[in-house]
Amino acid sequence: xxxxxxxxxxxxxxxxxxxxxxxxxxxxxxxxxxxxxxxxxxxxxxxxxxxxxxxxxxxxxxxxxxxxxxxxxxxxxxxxxxxxxxxxxxxxxxxxxxxxxxxxxxxxxxxxxxxxxxxxxxxxxxxxxxxxxxxxxxxxxxxxxxxxxxxxxxxxxxxxxxxxxxxxxxxxxxxxxxxxxxxxxxxxxxxxxxxxxxxxxxxxxxxxxxxxxxxxxxxxxxxxxxxxxxxxxxxxxxxxxxxxxxxxxxxxxxxxxxxxxxxxxxxxxxxxxxxxxxxxxx
Length: 282
Hints:
- By secondary structure, this protein is of the alpha/beta class.
- 27% of the residues lie in helices and 16% in strands.
- Strands 7-6-8-9-10-11 form a 6-stranded parallel β-sheet, sandwiched between helices. Strands 2-1-3-4-5 form a 5-stranded parallel β-sheet.
- Helix 2 (85-100) packs across helix 4.
C-alpha cells in the first residue's frame, strides 16, 4: 500500500484528497509515508521524511522544501502552482487598481459624508501606466497578460535582472531564493518614480515592508499592497493608512482551493504510481 501523509494541512485548505489510485492509504506520521503533502509553512528535509518517494508542496513557491537535499536522498519533490494562480492574479489586480485609482481616499471622504466631486484633482487618481512585473513564472506570466489587456505598458523582469525605477507600478511574483531576500529594499524604493505603487503577493521576505510603509507615509510611494510578510502572522494594525492595503496571506484563497489541491495531488500520485513524469517537478 502506498501511504500518503497530509502534514500540516492549513484549515482553509478545505476538503479531503480524492481521485487517488486504489490501494493508497492515509497516515498521520510523515516518517511513515511514501508521499508527503505540505503547505508553505511546513519545512521539509530528508530527515523528516525517511520513507518518502515524493514530497508535494501545495503552493507555487517552494522555499520550504530543501530540494537539493531531498534530491540527494532520492526523494522527488513538486509543487502546485496552478491551484492559486488565478486567485492571486485577481487579488493583485484588485490591490493595484484600488491603489492607483485612490479608492481608499475616496472611501474616507465618503465615510466623512463628503461629496467631493468638485475636487477630484486632489485625489490624484491615475491610470496604470508602466508596470514592472517581477518574476515571470506561472503567476507572473498570467499577471502580465491581464495587465496588458487593461492597457498597461508591462516590463517583464526575470530572475537576475535589475528592477527598473521609471515605473508607475511594481508588482512582485518571484519565488524566494537564497539570493533575493529584500530585493526591494529602502534604496530601491527611494529610487522609484514618485507616486509609484508597490504590491507584494509573492513572498514576504522579497520586500522591506517597513521601508515601504515609511515611503508611503512620507508621500514618496503612491500606495502599498501587501499580502505576505517576513514573519507571519504579522500585526496588520501597524500598517493602517489610506494608501495601504494589507491582507493576511489571503490572496490565493478561493472556495474551490481544496478541490484544486486534491486534483493536483492526485495527478502527482498517479504519475508516481505509473512511473511517469511528475507534474510541476522541482
